[in-house]
Q: What sequence folds into this?
């Protein structure tokens, strides 16, 4: 039986986290009505000069640094020509002759051990617009045209879907912690195309290559790879079909790939230097400035959390697995300096509330000042933990101010032991049977009595204090 090996290379597009587009001052942010974020420059009016966005170049430098790449001293932009209605100029501004960097390395870890993925290059380029098809016509929205991207091109180093997934997770961590991109696959701010071919083990020639597109989650990418690899193996084994070099679209509902177009070769695009944009010199001093401005990467933060801060490994891994959670942790501990409590409330309570609200960890938007205030109210025993949990939900979903809310709704803990004792006396006089059972040796009944007392206090007493006073009242 012949044995096969899957050979894959990745092209990852990540949207740069700039305020404005790559060559004009239109907003780069997601959303807006159709064609609201558009000007003559990014909608292809002839003669508009293109001026490169300095921030985009800086984020490109940051991407180069975190992927251990060699930065090009003088980078230039090129035109890639093709005709499609989502591209108003008829060409995409990208880089081919002198991209921002080359020869990067990214370390990954899978169940099979550690591996280094090598990068061919990273280039900066502009996004295209969006076509909206309905029954009668096709409409075009240029809001996305000329939004800056980096395209990270790997060498054909991948052999398994697990390696691809580990690499994408690592890239997401590196780029999001460096502030390069928010890397949300579902929203399309990180997209991955897989170039895949299959060959017999031992062979050095590459098989016929297919490029797979349109996967919008890690799960979809893994499934698309498994499907496509099997399709190639079947073709080689049985001759069921003749493989051709082509681009294929993954259909997540059907779990299959379909032909999109026969793959163009680079010379079909008639790349040529863009004479309108000046070459950009990237000096050592500029690179150093960017390097020094980079925030703490995930692995360093993790080491700090489990080391000096003494936080649990599993929780620290969850926090540093998401740039957003990590930011919430930082800003909340800045205002409420009890990292252990903050981690607990994020990992256990906040994630549960967010899940109930159908939000993933990267979509949680909480005011950390209010979150910190809430934790302070719990710590100072102004409210108990249960009330705290309920308020957390309101802070997250309605943005309430916890302090005001507690005051207005009279949620503060009953700290008056006289009132607590009064409630205990009332409950004990009403529940004579349970009291007798308890005194007869059935100690479990205390849970029931405790519940009754807490209820009569509206849940607003410190359970520890109530428990202690209830036990002593039962002794008599
Ligand atoms: Zn514009
Ligand atoms: Mn591209």
A:
């Amino acid at each position: 039986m012949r044995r096969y090996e899957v050979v894959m290379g990745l092209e990852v597009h990540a949207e740069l986290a700039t305020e404005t587009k790559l060559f004009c001052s239109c907003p780069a942010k997601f959303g807006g009505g159709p064609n609201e974020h558009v000007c003559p420059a990014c909608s292809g009016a002839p003669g508009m000069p293109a001026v490169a966005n300095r921030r985009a170049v800086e984020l490109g430098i940051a991407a180069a640094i975190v992927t251990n790449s060699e930065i090009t001293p003088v980078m230039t932009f090129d035109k890639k020509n093709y005709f499609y209605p989502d591209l108003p100029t008829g060409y995409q501004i990208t880089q081919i002759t002198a991209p921002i960097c080359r020869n990067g390395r990214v370390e990954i870890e899978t169940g099979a051990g550690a591996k280094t993925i090598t990068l061919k290059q990273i280039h900066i380029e502009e996004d295209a617009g969006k076509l909206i098809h309905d029954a009668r016509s096709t409409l075009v929205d240029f809001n996305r045209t000329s939004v800056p991207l980096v395209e990270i091109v790997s060498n054909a180093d991948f052999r398994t879907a697990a390696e691809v997934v580990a690499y994408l997770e690592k890239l997401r961590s590196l780029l999001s912690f460096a502030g390069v991109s928010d890397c949300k696959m579902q929203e399309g701010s990180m997209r991955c195309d897989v170039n895949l071919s299959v060959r017999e083990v031992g062979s050095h020639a590459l098989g016929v290559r297919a490029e797979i597109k349109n996967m919008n989650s890690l799960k979809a990418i893994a499934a698309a790879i498994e499907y496509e690899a099997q399709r190639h193996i079947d073709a080689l084994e049985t001759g069921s079909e003749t493989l051709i070099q082509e681009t294929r679209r993954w259909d997540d509902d059907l779990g299959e790939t379909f032909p999109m177009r026969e793959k163009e070769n680079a010379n079909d695009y008639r790349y040529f230097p863009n004479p309108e944009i000046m070459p950009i010199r990237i000096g050592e001093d500029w690179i150093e400035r960017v390097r020094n401005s980079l925030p703490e990467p995930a692995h360093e933060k993790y080491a700090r959390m489990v080391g000096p801060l003494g936080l649990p490994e599993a929780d620290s891994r969850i926090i540093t697995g998401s740039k957003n959670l990590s930011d919430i942790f930082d800003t909340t501990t800045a205002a409420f300096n009890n990292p252990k409590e903050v981690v607990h409330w994020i990992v256990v309570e906040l994630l549960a509330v967010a899940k109930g609200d159908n939000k993933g960890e990267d979509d949680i938007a909480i005011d950390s000042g209010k979150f910190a205030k809430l934790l302070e109210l719990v710590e100072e025993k102004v409210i108990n933990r249960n009330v705290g949990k309920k308020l957390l939900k309101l802070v997250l979903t309605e943005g309430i101010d916890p302090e005001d809310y507690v005051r207005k709704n009279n949620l503060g803990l009953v700290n008056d032991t006289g009132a607590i004792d009064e409630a205990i006396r009332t409950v004990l006089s009403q529940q004579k049977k349970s009291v007798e059972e308890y005194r007869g040796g059935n100690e479990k009944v205390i849970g029931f009595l405790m519940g009754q007392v807490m209820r009569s206090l509206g849940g607003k007493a410190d359970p520890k204090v109530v428990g202690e006073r209830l036990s002593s009242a039962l002794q008599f």
